[in-house]
Specification:
Elements (H helix, E strand, L loop, with lengths): L1 H10 L2 H6 L22 E3 L21 E2 L5 H4 L5 H17 L4 E3 L22 H16 L4 E7 L12 E2 L3 H8 L1 H10 L3 E4 L3 E2 L2 E2 L4 H11 L5 E4 L7 H7 L11 H11 L5 H20 L9 H15 L17 E5 L17 E2 L5 H7 L3 E5 L11 H13 L2
Parallel strand pairs: 1-3, 2-11, 3-4, 4-6, 5-7, 6-9, 10-12
Antiparallel strand pairs: 7-8
Length: about 400
Amino acid sequence: MKNDLIALLNELTLDEKASLCSGSDFWHLKGVERLNIPSIMVTDGPHGLRKQEGDSDHVGLAQSVPATCFPTASATASSWDIELLEEMGVALGEECLQEDVAVLLGPGANIKRSPLCGRNFEYISEDPYLTGQLGAALVNGIQSMGIGTSLKHFAANNQEYRRMVTESVVDERTFREIYLAGFENIVKEAQPWTVMCAYNKLQGIYCSDNNRLLTDILKEEWGHTGLVMTDWGACSDRVKGIKAGMELEMPASGGLNDSKIVDAINKGILTMEELDKVVLRLLKLIKKSEDNRKVDFVYNKEDHHQLARKIAGESAVLLKNKDNILPLAKDESYVILGAFAKNPRYQGAGSSLINPYKIDDVLSELESYEVDYSYAAGYELKTDEVNQELINEAIELVKENQ
């Protein structure tokens, strides 16, 4: 395959090589029609397929195709079950095959260092070893179906507030033992097809321009054979990024950064050898994706839904079963309080906003088992403001059923 790709590389013009280094829109890589190089699709997300059709955006406002919403990483990590995570990965890969998606953007392997990080639900663990083991299992499962992954957000990206401009300053031992260890294990054990560099600066240099991070550590020390893409809009300096080992800028830059690459070559700031290294990895990804396409593949939606239920059950942690209240007795009557029993909150927003094929809720489950219950919402779903009327209804319902 390598010789074929080198031959293809040699047929590309400078403008075509530069164009391949950035996306064509929000979710597609550029192709080169005259050489039959196709445009492939990447899409979110870490715990379920978020493929948008028609108008696209990165914050989850546009509707996506129905898919299975699997439990988030914060839940699945509590299962400590490597085989289960690999099984979930296979299912995610199957959904990508049906939707003709080449690369699924996940898993998230950033370490949970602060409860204030708004993406903690999307990251696996506070523990680097657990992150590495479960992350590798998920990647292996997805990629066993011929679908790529994008290990993110590399690296030391542990907050949402001002994450596009913040700087992470970390001493070497902490960096290696805490922030990099999970990424290292996943790369060495599973070889994700892509790694997504983070927005932040690391030791004063943006991750997208960071030669030590992307080349010295990731490519040379760990032996990563895939490519590096940016988080959406994380490109700092396109020419410096190529020199540092950042192959793909996402999303599209409207040709702006493509022209900067061409200009840098013409001025001798960037060598053709440096650009060719980048383009060769891009061609390898495109070729691998095309070789693994399965036209007309269809997965079993109900089987995947049942798998999601199984994973949720295995991920639940019961700290104490007071008075052996669980499992519930079928012949008893129960008071159910809380609006989430009817409208569960089960995922985050943005890259994690899945359009679920099917949603189970507590009340429907009780009804399916013919369990007698009374219900009160107790609070509003769309506001933090206290609704005293709803609280009073809940209190009265409890009093009536004592």
